Amino acid sequence: MKTIQDINFKDKKALIRVDFNVPLDDKFKVTDATRIEAAKPTIDKILKDGGAVILMSHLGRPNGVESKYSLGHIVDEVSEILRVPVKFVSDCVGKVAKKASEDLKMGEVLLLENLRFHAEEEDGDEAFAEQLAKLGDVYVNDAFGTAHRAHASTTIVAKFFPENKCFGSLLAQEIISIKKVLEDSEKPVLAILGGAKVSSKITIIENILDKVDHLILGGGMSFTFVKALGGQVGNSICEDDKQELALEILKKAKEKGVQVHIPVDVIAADDFNNNANTEICDIDKIPDGWQGLDAGPKSRELFHKVIMESKTILWNGPVGVFEMESFANGTIALGNSIAEATKNGTFSLVGGGDSVAAVKQFGFEDKVSYVSTGGGAMLESLEGKVLPGIEAILK
Ligand code: AMP
Questions:
Q1: Which residues are catalytic?
Q2: DSSP string for residues in 120-142
Q3: For ligand 1, is residue 293 a contact (CB within 6 Å)?
Q4: Does residue 387 belong to any structural domain of this protein?
Q5: 334 within 8 A of 358, measured Cβ to Cβ
Q6: Do 339 and 305 reside in the same domain of the chain?
Q7: Domain of 256?
Q8: Does the C-beta of 234 come closer than 6 Å to ligand 1?
Q9: Which of 19, 131, 178, 207 is paired with 230 by a 20 to 30 Å CA distance?
Q10: Which helix (H) or strand (E) element contains residue 52?
Q11: Which helix (DSSP H) or strand (DSSP E) does residue 349 occupy?
């Protein structure tokens, strides 16, 4: 795996695909700069070597050129974070981009305009990718969030740098972390899958059954399993058409020697509402009119025990409706248990969609080993897919 550490960038212009798809407020100020900060180590290394940096990214989902999606809005923020002046060019291809790249001196940073102002980016257009490629001497991919897309700047462009392409440090860290969980993992390995629906996690479950010793199935998806096993789930979220599949998953897990842990009790509510009346219920005896919205105390204890016995933990998906304060405590307790295990030397990776939001909201970010920066990309990695953006560098 070739990374920026394997290249000396002196007198080289590095074309870096970063993920600067950051949230902006109505005055176009960056409200969360995590993604810009995450790209800093890669940019710093290249500048320190004596190279120049050309940054390319998308921002939002523009329909053609739309000024509200201009990356020009974030130039000052990027300058401030990198502590160097950042130049900006009003297009990512064409004469202006070419000239800006030619004029760029070593030690300088140039930000290109939003790649998605051109439909060719998402189409993975080869001629467009070739134009991008002409801007730099080395291609660096540091955008995990888009590595599952075969877009021009994330994948296709790599073919124009057969010898001079590598992973940035952020993307390399993501790859190493996933490997640590799915391939070179220290046993026992535990995967915690939560979230709303089984249907969105089936491929992940199937892929990880070969790689884990314990599997916690929590949150909304657990009710499909409970009902399939003959329990009463009241009005809890449940996918009736997936019950057979749930039983099949349990059977496969047994054959493979994976211990599956399903919550034993829940905080049931008489409405999907933060102020609803609540009761602690056995998970298989939820009365009609009530729905399980969070893990109950016995379930939290069960999760804690399994977590403390594990050496490697993957966490994807909340175990309750954490967006509502009344039903966030199960997810917070789970996070606390993972933090405690991590402190004792367990490797913990949190990734994919809402669990990252939960981890940030409850301040667990620095208490787990690694928080993935890519939602969809992480989910596809867990499904066992080789992401096109990663494959293009490895080729
Ligand atoms: P996912 O995107 O599949 O990871 O699902 C995350 C969503 O699952 C969050 O918005 C949670 O509110 C929701 N969720 C978790 N537990 C439950 C539950 N018991 N009932 C309904 N929704 C849930």
A1: 35, 197, 353, 376
A2: HHHHT-HHHHHHHHTT-SEEEE-
A3: yes
A4: no
A5: no
A6: yes
A7: 185-382
A8: no
A9: 207
A10: strand 52-56
A11: strand 347-350
Count the Cβ atoms, other than its own, within 10 Å of residue 246. 25
Here the CATH number for the domain that contains residue 354 is 3.40.50.1260
Helix (H) or strand (E) holding 278: strand 278-282
CA of 311 to the centre of ligand 1 (A): 26
In this structure, are 237 and 309 located in the same domain? yes
In 3-state terms the chain splits into helix, strand, coil percentages (rounded to 5) of: 45, 20, 40
Could you give the CA distance from residue 333 to residue 194 in angstroms, rounded to a whole number?
A: 14
**What is the residue-wise DSSP string for 61-82?**
--SSS-GGG-GGGGHHHHHHHH
User: What token pair was written down for 65?
Assistant: 């050129």
Q: Count how many domains the chain has.
A: 2
Span from the CA of 343 to the centroid of ligand 1 (angstroms):
27
Atom of ligand 1 minimally distant from the CA of 355: 4
326 Cβ closer than 6 Å to some ligand 1 atom: no
Ligand 1 centroid, distance to 222 Cα (angstroms): 10
- What is the value of pTM for the model shown? 0.92
How far is residue 129's CA from residue 109's CA, in Å, rounded to a whole number?
20
pLDDT 10s digit of each residue in the chain, 395 long? Answer: 999 999 999 999 999 999 999 999 999 999 989 899 999 999 999 999 999 999 999 999 999 999 999 999 999 999 999 999 999 999 999 999 999 999 999 999 999 999 999 999 999 999 999 999 999 999 999 999 999 999 999 999 999 999 999 999 999 999 999 999 999 999 999 999 999 999 989 999 999 999 999 999 999 999 999 999 999 999 999 999 999 999 999 999 999 999 999 999 999 999 999 999 999 999 999 999 999 999 999 999 999 999 999 999 999 999 999 999 999 999 999 999 999 999 999 999 998 777 788 888 899 999 999 999 888 899 999 999 999 999 999 99
